[in-house]
Amino acid sequence: MTWISKAITLFGAVLLGHACYSAQEHSALQSFKAATATLTSSSLAVASLPVDIAIETVIAITVILFGLVLGTRPLRPIQWRVWAGKIEREGEEGFMDNDGEVNKDFVGNPFKFLETRPGFVDIRKQRKEFASWVKTSSTQ
Amino acid sequence: MSAEREFQIVPIVQEAVVHNSRTLLNLQSLTASLFGVGAGILGLESYSGFLFYVVCSLLTAMLFYVVRVAPTSLASDANGGGGAFDTSRYFRSQVEFWTGGLMNGLAGFILTWTLFYGLVRA
């Protein structure tokens, strides 16, 4: 998934670089024309940016923006109940980066301490066992 | 008092808040520099440049909403039924989500704007 956003961003960057170079060349040409126009006293050309460079710039910005937004990391729910429910339902799959790796600060199930605590202890049975152990050890 | 009470009833995961706002901040500062490059190439000056920045940062927030927030936020009924353009599943404040980019990236925007304006019209 991540290579798609990187490819889109790279394509947009190439477009933007080309537009920047074109605009720079255009302004250099305009200043050269203006310098020669004073010598030959011909009419001055308009120094505004050609419309194709403007269109290319806008398209390049849109493409890069789209690539960058696609490359952002997935968000996490901020409400505790939604967040914990997502962990319960999806586990590690819900907390992956774009590369398919689990986030480093993934803490796992927040209710683990409830599920791993020991169950109830049959204290009467243990007491009986202890009494019989005492009896057998005292008779020997 | 009531805010604290509400915080007790609906707890917030701080790590998730930090993660989300950092993701949004990264995107905003990256794209602000990008818009500066564009404004410099287009040769915008004074108010039209700032208008370009405002429009582009709103577009960024919109695109981020469509790509990252909307698919899960609209599918879940747990976000209080806020409907479209509701970001309460991932962000605490709606205003911060939609207009936070205006302040966060302004310095980077002006930096690259002036730089590329000067580079192109040398």
Task: Give structural notes.
The complex is a heterodimer of chains A (140) and B (122). Chain A has helices at residues 2-40, 51-70, 80-90, 112-115, 123-139. Chain A folds into two domains: 2-72, no CATH class; 75-140, no CATH class. Chain A is an all-alpha fold and 140 residues long. With 122 residues, chain B is mostly helical. Chain B has one domain (25-120). Chain B contains five helices and no strands. The longest helix of chain B has 30 residues, at 46-75. The termini of chain B are far apart. Classes of the chains: A mainly alpha (140), B mainly alpha (122). Chain A binds chain B through residues 16, 19-20, 23-24, 27-28, 48-49, 53-54, 57-58, 60-61, 64-66, 68-70, 72-83, 85, 105, and chain B through 10-13, 15-17, 19-20, 23, 26-27, 30-31, 34-35, 37-38, 41-43, 56, 59-60, 63-64, 67-69, 72, 76, 78-79, 89-92, 116, 119-122.
Strand and helix layout:
The complex is a heterodimer of chains A (140) and B (122).
Chain A: H1 2-40, H2 51-70, H3 80-90, H4 112-115, H5 123-139
Helix pairs in contact in A: 1-2
Chain B: H1 2-9, H2 14-42, H3 46-75, H4 94-104, H5 106-120
Helix pairs in contact in B: 2-3, 2-4, 2-5, 3-4
Cα-atom radius of gyration of chain B: 18 Å
Number of distinct helices of chain A:
5
**Category from helices, strands and their pairing of chain B:** mainly alpha
Largest sheet of chain A: none
Globular, elongated, flat, extended or rod-shaped: what is the shape of chain A? rod-shaped
Order of helices and strands of chain B: HHHHH
Family (chain A): Belongs to the membrane magnesium transporter (TC 1.A.67) family.
InterPro entries (chain A): EMC_subunit, MMgT
Transmembrane segments (chain A): 46-71
Protein name (chain A): Magnesium transporter
